[in-house]
Specification:
- With about 140 residues, this protein is of the alpha+beta class.
- It folds into two domains: about 1-35; about 40-140, Immunoglobulin-like.
- It contains one helix and eight strands; from the N terminus they run αββββββββ.
- The chain has a four-stranded antiparallel β-sheet with strand order 1-3-6-5, with no helix packed on it. It has a four-stranded mixed β-sheet with strand order 2-8-7-4, with no helix packed on it.
Length: about 140
């Protein structure tokens, strides 16, 4: 019984060692492929000062950027920190050297006072996320 248990354990360890070796080379290949599609981004404006608005108003905010890399720039998602802001990302990749836009709409209903909001942009750049911010003073009705 001991010999059988030992043989089973050795067989399992051998199978695990073979599988992990293959996974390592697959992971290296995947990392190399990912590095090939990375690009870079330059934000023309990443922080906005909206000023004063009246509670209940909706404000559209637009952020501009340029693909400064050699590969198409893919904006995977734009995630606002609050449900009061809805963001819109480009549907298509942005070609190298071209400009793109991130649009957001802030709904000030029930948000009187100073507001500082952040949107996080996820993309195929070396730094995979980029924070965008805006500040607005919402005057109570």
């Amino acid at each position: 019984m001991n010999k059988i248990s030992t043989i089973i354990i050795i067989a399992l360890l051998s199978a695990t060692a073979c599988t992990s070796g293959t996974g390592d080379s697959d992971q290296k290949a995947a990392t190399a492929d990912t590095a090939k599609v990375l690009t870079s981004i330059q934000w023309l404006d990443s922080a906005k000062q909206i000023g004063k608005i009246t509670e209940g108003e909706k404000v559209e905010i637009t952020y501009r950027f340029v693909n400064t890399g050699n590969q198409p720039l893919v904006i995977q998602s734009v995630v606002p920190t609050c449900g009061c802001t809805v963001a819109e990302k480009p549907d298509q990749p942005i070609a190298p050297g071209k400009e793109g836009l991130i649009k957001a709409v802030f709904d000030s209903h029930g948000r009187a006072g100073s507001q500082h909001k952040t949107l996080t942009v996820y993309s195929n750049t070396e730094t995979s996320f980029h924070p965008l911010t805006f500040d607005v003073e919402v005057l109570a009705k």
